[in-house]
Design brief:
Distance between the termini: 53 Å
Shape: globular
Number of domains: 2
Structural class: alpha+beta
CATH architecture of the largest domain: Orthogonal Bundle
Mean pLDDT: 94
CATH topology of the largest domain: DNA polymerase, domain 1
Bound molecules: FE2/S2 (inorganic) cluster
Amino acid sequence: MSSVLALSVNGSIHRVSPDAERPLLLVLRDDLELTGAKIGCGEGECGTCTVVVDDELCRACVTPVGAVTGKRIRTLEGLAENGQLHPLQQAFLEYGALQCGYCTAGMIMSAWALLQHNSAPTKPEIVAHMQGNICRCGCYPRIVQAIQQAAEQLSVRAGLEVPR
Ligand code: FES
Ligand code: FES
């Protein structure tokens, strides 16, 4: 049996304890010190631990780390590039889409996964997709606005990058 597990997180390979049953959330937070994803319900219900695995949502609290070896894991810490916040992060700040911030990493990662599959989601599509993420501070209207703003900005950016 291997003495370590190899995980691909935010484009880097990390070697972690071989206990394949440990929750991914604890490995990220305790072993890799990636503390963006938060511990909430611990039962897959609140979304505060959300990360993205191979472009799909993943509730890290109920996902054994052994289930995601060999897959691409992305966390909030992997969104900023070259010192620039991702448009979703920027929009959450600009729209004040958080109060305590406890849900925010999970919200942003859920939104990021949505935009991987749908670059121009409608408001109902955003609301439906974000159903699994709970905000106890009730920031939902501003969260939806922020996601719409980020989607627009990303579309503009993609348009600018299209070769003439
Ligand atoms: S802590 Fe994972 S869904 Fe609530
Ligand atoms: S900002 Fe407090 S739980 Fe969402």
